[in-house]
Amino acid sequence: MNKDMEKYIEKYKEIADAVQLKEVFWLNPDKKNISQVQITEVSEDQIEDAEARLKRFAAYLCAAFPETKENDGILESPLRKILKMQECLNTQFGADIKGELYLKMDSHLPISGSIKARGGIYEVLKHAETLAIEHNLLKETDNYAMFADEKFRKFFSQYTIQVGSTGNLGMSIGIMSAKLGFEVIVHMSADAKQWKKDLLRSRGATVIEYQSDYCVAVEQGRKESIENPNSYFVDDENSVDLFLGYSVAAKRLKQQLYEQSIVINENKPLFVYLPCGIGGAPGGVAYGLKQVFGDHVHCFFTEPTEACCMLLGVATGLHDKVCVQDFDISGKTEADGLAVGRPSAFVGRVIAPYLSGIATIADNKLYQLMDSLKKTEDIFIEPSACASFAGLLKNDKLNQYIKCNGLESVAHNAIHIAWATGGSMVPEYMIEEYLSKVSK
Ligand SMILES: *Cc1c(COP(=O)(O)O)cnc(C)c1O
Questions:
Q1: Model-level pTM?
Q2: Mutational pocket test of ligand 1: of 168, 234, 274, the residue with most ligand atoms within 8 Å of the beta carbon
Q3: pLDDT by residue (tens digit) across 196-237?
Q4: Distance of CA 52 to CAs 30, 48, 76, 141, Å?
Q5: Where does ligand 1 bind, in terms of residues with CB under 6 Å?
């Protein structure tokens, strides 16, 4: 153990428990009301700009990915009420969910089947737009369907895009970049599943495999990208564009809730549970939700017990200056999308005042939840995504939060959203392998 870390173990019970690989539910003592937070890093204008950019690209996405036509080229996922799963959590997993439970099915986002279809695809599109404008191939008022033209593909083939990934980010960046015509190189950490590498290669991406963890894959990708002047690196540890792509989810969620006659206000609070790896995806979504719903939304991150980097970063205030290995925690988890040992360099700082808490969950429970969701609702999501249920299982802490925030009288009206972050592209044989691992 890194000596400097011992003081945090003495100071914070949750960190002491986390080091022993116990599941914890840390409630953020420094959460602020929205009116107390000075927005400095990411403005609302930037989120609107991202939303407008995605609208400009909708015509292209329809042309390039026919499955996006039914939603007019806007990449969005269903919001589904999961009453049977709610009952199952209450009766078999010790939960005590008042109000209603929904599943936000980013597991079923088009093109790459994970939440990375928000941030990852957005960043690639933005880079492509920037290059095309710089080279006088495009004006913002043009019909972006022309990105599908051979002329554009040929132009982009002079450029390279690189990314480090545990799997899903690589799939989003790889599939999107290859479709536009870019050379694309994905640096995959040891945790990445074989089928994700195979799929990427089949779409024309170059996959470089590492025996080491995510940080090393990112480091190497960044280094190789710097050496090539025509290469662009999607930097998961620092990228504001990824964050912005994720944040667009919030306004759209408001509309989806409205379509189901749900209006969030002081009598109807919203609780959202977001699986967290490096922090970009849950951070971006939560940040957007806070802009849209203010103090009526309560955002929780969830992590595997073996890769609880955001918990350590935010609770100690050390952010990216700390990694799980500093606390003798392995960083190894079956939840490949969350197998990250060191949190983002900026997300924790931006999100800390907004964050309600962080819950951790053991790998074996992820499999049980996966199995239960399949049985009760006939929905398959990957193990990482099942972390979205973690906060709901610790009802003593959740009830404490509800009480401390004066929400007891409205808790029975609450909307809880488990944010399912990946799964629809998992091949059938892998689904069977996953389900066979469930310890009964
Ligand atoms: C990437 C990912 C997350 C978390 O996103 P981060 O930006 O790494 O925090 C959650 N679930 C799945 C399935 C993912 O692929």
A1: 0.97
A2: 168
A3: 999 999 999 999 999 988 888 899 999 999 999 999 999 998
A4: 34, 6, 15, 12
A5: 114-116, 168-169, 275-282, 337-338, 340, 382, 384-385, 421-422
